[in-house]
Amino acid sequence: MNPVEVKKRICEGRKKIEIKLIEKEENRQVCFSKRRQGLFKKASELSILCGAEVAAVVFSPAGKPYFFGNPSVDHVLRRFLSNISGPSDTLSPATTNCAELVNHDQLVQKPFWWDIDLHSMGVDELREYEKFLLEQQTVVTQAAQQCCFEAPEAAMEQIDALPHTSPELGEADYFLWLLQEIMDSPDIDPI
Amino acid sequence: MNPVEVKKRICEGRKKIEIKLIEKEENRQVCFSKRRQGLFKKASELSILCGAEVAAVVFSPAGKPYFFGNPSVDHVLRRFLSNISGPSDTLSPATTNCAELVNHDQLVQKPFWWDIDLHSMGVDELREYEKFLLEQQTVVTQAAQQCCFEAPEAAMEQIDALPHTSPELGEADYFLWLLQEIMDSPDIDPI
DNA sequence: ATGACTATAATTAGTTT
DNA sequence: TAAACTAATTATAGTCA
């Protein structure tokens, strides 16, 4: 067998695929994982390059939630929902109809559960909550170290590319991200 | 000038760019338009190929909203928001303590088992919840893995990378699309 | 602003380990 | 089960019509 044939056999490269539901469950799962990462990366690049606010929410076929947001999912969705349901000086009739048809009453008025009112906490509660977050951060850090064998550079690039993993992350999204991390890393022994 | 040089001048091809805010306003605008389309196309392909539910919301730097959703933005955001903020028939967030949560069967069946009002927790409850959170990691993940794939309704042919521009558009998304159109055409007097 | 073009960068389907 | 690999496909920065 000549070298060309050998190389051919080793890897046929990417094949053009039709955009329709992938039949084989295993392939579908792998594809979902790869493309979800790709989608979030694209979303991140768009927000950074163009200064845009982007939110992406994905449910896997199994019902697992994934999300990306810059500056945060909470921020973008709030803006979006207020846009389509809130009163507007210039778009009043249209938005009124929109609010009626979409029936966003629950959607808009219900407070997000992560709107934790820090001011209402006592000192002890605040300290405890802070401790709680720090401990959770340790878990996530360990998980990341165990799960990610990438070069530090690549890891840092990835972290930079995903704003919800940055230290500047708001409290609300940090917690969401943390839960996502935990659910994504079942094999990690916490603390 | 020889042909090679001419060809060079005509198109230098794509250049590698650093992921940071594009300084020149015009370039940023063009990039936004192109990449927004690319993002929505990726989102569409992900939902079709893998039977996933995907929503993406983008605000341009000028504040114009764009969105993509399969089966609809409304559907995905409702699912997302209800899962993270919605009440449970059996779990009362304000009064549920961790002991009750631990023993609750539904907990492992719901992907959003963290449907808990942290704000209402005292120190002890927070600590207990932390412990519970970590202990239940494996259980929850296993439960998630056991979830059966839903009938992939998303397999149905998607009209386009931008379904909200289609006539078959659902009522809710039609209004969202309408709003988008209106905001894209400030010169047109919105009804 | 909008679309077409081109060459390069980036993504990813299939394979191997 | 997952990670690395390879190469074909896809996305897109820059340019021009």
TrEMBL record, chains A, B:
<dbReference type="InterPro" id="IPR002100">
    <property type="entry name" value="TF_MADSbox"/>
</dbReference>
<dbReference type="InterPro" id="IPR033896">
    <property type="entry name" value="MEF2-like_N"/>
</dbReference>
<dbReference type="InterPro" id="IPR036879">
    <property type="entry name" value="TF_MADSbox_sf"/>
</dbReference>
<dbReference type="GO" id="GO:0046983">
    <property type="term" value="F:protein dimerization activity"/>
</dbReference>
<dbReference type="GO" id="GO:0000981">
    <property type="term" value="F:DNA-binding transcription factor activity, RNA polymerase II-specific"/>
</dbReference>
<protein>
    <recommendedName>
        <fullName>MADS-box domain-containing protein</fullName>
    </recommendedName>
</protein>
<keyword id="KW-0539">Nucleus</keyword>
<keyword id="KW-0804">Transcription</keyword>
<keyword id="KW-0805">Transcription regulation</keyword>
<dbReference type="Pfam" id="PF00319">
    <property type="entry name" value="SRF-TF"/>
</dbReference>
<feature type="domain" description="MADS-box">
    <location>
        <begin position="12"/>
        <end position="72"/>
    </location>
</feature>
<dbReference type="GO" id="GO:0005634">
    <property type="term" value="C:nucleus"/>
</dbReference>
<dbReference type="GO" id="GO:0000978">
    <property type="term" value="F:RNA polymerase II cis-regulatory region sequence-specific DNA binding"/>
</dbReference>
<dbReference type="GO" id="GO:0045944">
    <property type="term" value="P:positive regulation of transcription by RNA polymerase II"/>
</dbReference>
<keyword id="KW-0238">DNA-binding</keyword>
